[in-house]
């Protein structure tokens, strides 16, 4: 369990927030207090006394938690969904229970993602806005207003300090999470920008468009470094874990693996008979240890 230096006057919710950040969780865990005496051995097994779930609005003192008390967190993975019903929802993946409903958009929610530090959810909508929400409460933290038409996608930078949006208005924008202010506007596509994302090192942003191009931008200056021509439209691009290559999905029934530095296509994946709408790298498997 994550360690935290919390006073008895702190709320249980603050301890849950620490667990979220330290364990990279997306559902606030249930915090339990184990009463004294400590668990004892019964027939070779550890027997735990009844655990008491703590109310998140209580302080640790109000919850009856004593100094050096044993606190534990029940961890649950989460799933986030975006819907045409104008909401996004965070679900407990173990129970199927809806933990939070993110309400505020006035039109269909096109995408939803959780920041790497698990503090925020970013949503995009056909109402021409994007929003940042607090993961722990579901409260809207920032409304990102600068696009003129529908916003199709959002993605956080690896350090969670920035978010990039892609819009029907032909632009992508980089925003500062802390302030909600637009830092850079990436203009150059002739039609709608369908997707945008940061590279794993955070130095580049890649955008795809219905104009049949993919562009790689300097995330610090907003300058377009490279433009790749494809078949209309280029739906998305997904980075490899090491950031050296990315794979694109496009309207010519192929996917292409491209070099990030040069932008050149290294491998063309052919075999589909219709539009390729999605493509992504499988997670890298950890190297096996040599037992010898």
From TrEMBL:
Sorted UniProt keywords: Repeat, WD repeat
Record has Transmembrane helix as a keyword: no
InterPro entries xref list: WD40/YVTN_repeat-like_dom_sf, WD40_PAC1, WD40_repeat_CS, WD40_repeat_dom_sf, WD40_rpt, WD_LIS1/nudF_dynein_reg
CDD domains for the chain: WD40
Name of the featured protein: Uncharacterized protein
Top-level taxon: Eukaryota
Placement of WD repeats on the sequence: 102-143, 144-185, 186-227
Claim: Nucleotide-binding is one of the keywords in the record: no
PROSITE patterns listed in its UniProt record: WD_REPEATS_1, WD_REPEATS_2, WD_REPEATS_REGION
């Amino acid at each position: 369990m994550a360690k935290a230096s919390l006073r008895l006057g702190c709320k249980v919710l603050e301890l849950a927030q620490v667990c979220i950040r330290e364990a990279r969780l997306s559902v606030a865990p249930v915090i339990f207090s184990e009463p004294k005496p400590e668990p004892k051995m019964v027939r070779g097994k550890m027997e735990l006394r009844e655990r008491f779930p703590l109310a998140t609005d209580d302080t640790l003192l109000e919850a009856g938690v004593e100094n050096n008390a044993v606190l534990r967190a029940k961890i649950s993975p989460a799933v986030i969904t975006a819907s045409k019903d104008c909401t996004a929802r965070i679900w407990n993946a173990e129970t199927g229970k809806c933990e939070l409903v993110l309400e505020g958009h006035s039109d269909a929610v096109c995408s939803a993602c959780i920041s790497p530090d698990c503090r925020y959810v970013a949503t995009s909508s056909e109402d021409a806005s994007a929003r940042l929400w607090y993961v722990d409460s579901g409260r809207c933290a920032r409304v990102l207003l600068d696009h003129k038409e529908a916003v199709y996608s959002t993605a956080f930078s690896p350090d969670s300090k920035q978010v990039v949006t892609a819009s029907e208005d032909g632009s992508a924008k980089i925003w500062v999470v802390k302030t909600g202010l637009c830092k850079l506007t990436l203009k150059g596509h002739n039609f709608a920008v369908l997707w945008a994302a940061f590279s794993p090192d955070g130095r580049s942003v890649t955008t795809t468009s219905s104009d049949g191009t993919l562009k790689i931008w300097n995330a610090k200056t907003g300058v377009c470094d490279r433009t790749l021509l494809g078949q209309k439209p280029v739906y998305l691009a997904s980075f490899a874990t090491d950031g050296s290559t990315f794979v694109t999905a496009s309207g010519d029934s192929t996917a292409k693996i491209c070099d990030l530095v040069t932008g050149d296509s290294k491998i063309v994946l052919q075999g589909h008979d219709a539009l390729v709408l999605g493509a992504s790298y499988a997670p890298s498997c950890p190297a096996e240890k040599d037992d010898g």
